[in-house]
Amino acid sequence: MDNEIQLISDGDGLAVIGDAADVERFLLSEGLPSKDLGPQRLKSVLGIGTVVAQEGSEIAANSGRWVQLTQESAQLVKKYGLRESSKTGLSTGVVKGHKGQIRGFVEIVKVPRSLLTNPAALANAGRIMAQVAMQQTMDEITDYLAVIDEKVDDVLRAQKDAVLARMVGVGFVIEEAMTLREQRGRVDEVTWSKVQTAPMTIAETQAYALRQLDALAEKVERKAKIGDLATTAKETESMVREWLAVLARCFQLQDAIAVLELDRVLDASPEELNGHRLGLKAARQDRLELISRSTERLVARMNAVAGTANAKVLLHPTKSPAVVQSSNHVVTGVYDFHGRLGIASGHQSSEARRWVEAAAEARDKALETGAKGVDAARSFGNETLDRAGSAKAKLSSGIAERARRLRGGEGVRDKEG
């Protein structure tokens, strides 16, 4: 007997709907992790309009699971030839397989009576998929905030800062609305009235946090002395982490508002549901791009600072690596933050140049530039011009020794020279 699986993709996730055993076999055959859409969500999709009359008797037997689209899982859309609708923005399709065969889902079929042909059901499916995806991100951010630092809670609740204080209050109200939604299964007018002004406060806080990050980067850039740069970079490292946490909380609350908003539109103006979902998706992408641009500028500045410190590593063997280390911590933190929000990042963090590499470069430069290079060697080795020859010999000996240690797997922490 053949079994059919209905697939719906909104570009961020893939809903797999069908008999529970078939859905499980399909996901197993593709090696895809998934989340249960839950019987209530699935019933709301299948229980709309003509779908009830056509497939009502099958609702109890159906199962729905959600797969987050990654670079690998997104290939399923192409593999199974899902077709995108210009009206809904959703890609849909049906695959048929032989019962009991794990890798039997190969045939693409058309099912005229499928829920995929029902506009209202599709719009509702799109709503649920968007909500599941946003709640996934919200959970990621909750985990992110939990491991960042205890200081983050102090920042978020700092009553001395009016902007952050307002956002904290808004957060309480939104969480209450989410609890009511969970209990009642809908967002009524009363619940929505409590949160509908929240987006302005959250947007104001987000803008404020982005300005703080820009200010920190500019402060680091203005430091010319390596000693001052090391101190400022260290301070910036912890403050950037805290402001990234504020941004993450803003994004989390914005997603929560969108989840509530979709339910409210479904309740009040169901015919506008699909258009509203697409609008929220575009607005969310705009927010991601704004945050990405701002934080990438921060990364560029911190990498530039690391480059400056690397260039002076011979003159400042202790302070320069400290600057680079702080810079790398900031960059790593930014890209961890990006990962939680779903921002794609193709980065290479700046790495501290090892002492032996910097010393070898200085040696080669000394040989090429003559007296200027000897001056550099003298400054590095605390030698006089009369002892430039012995200083160069000492430097070469140090390079060989450090190279030996590197081959032995030891870290290079020497400050001799």
UniProtKB/TrEMBL annotation:
Please list the residue ranges that the record marks as compositionally biased, kind Basic and acidic residues.
Answer: 401-417
Q: Which domain of life is it from?
A: Bacteria
Q: What are the start and end residues of every segment in region (Disordered)? A: 391-417
The protein's name in its UniProt record: Uncharacterized protein
